[in-house]
Amino acid sequence: xxxxxxxxxxxxxxxxxxxxxxxxxxxxxxxxxxxxxxxxxxxxxxxxxxxxxxxxxxxxxxxxxxxxxxxxxxxxxxxxxxxxxxxxxxxxxxxxxxxxxxxxxxxxxxxxxxxxxxxxxxxxxxxxxxxxxxxxxxxxxxxxxxxxxxxxxxxxxxxxxxxxxxxxxxxxxxxxxxxxxxxxxxxxxxxxxxxxxxxxxxxxxxxxxxxxxxxxxxxxxxxxxxxxxxxx
Length: 232
Hints:
single chain, two-stranded antiparallel ribbon, 7 strands
């Protein structure tokens, strides 16, 4: 084969090589993205993200559990997982399942506190959070939350009302609560607390104050819980 033919074949194959490299880069990036969590928009907080590792201890004052929080599990448990989540976030849906598994395995040792961090990327996130608090005032927060995650692609007022009816809530009370946006300030307070803690990714959780970012796998979270238990 002449040098001219070799050169011609090389340049003909060059675009294909470039395409393959670009595709490989894309799939690697997607793999990293899908195994982490969802970043909140830069406009959500003026506070820069720390350059330190993801795991760090948060000031105890900011992780206090109050009577107004939605708590699942043993209230006297030695391990408390405070989760900041968003009903419209697909990673939060995935992590919700993992947290339920953790509570099933550690029914006496662990409790779970749900707090709201609605992303500005998600148009239904805030109203969904407020609707869940309307259900909470009738004692059905966790059941309502399950319905929102199970029907995540249908989030909207119709789903909130349908879910409330399925749970046999007082519909007049629920509708009044939702339309008046009774819990708008509570959702915003959770959001602001997350900003103060420099949390810019959902889901985010605090395991006895240790910050864990993203929808980490079950085995990873279990290891963190075991380490927290062993340190007591």
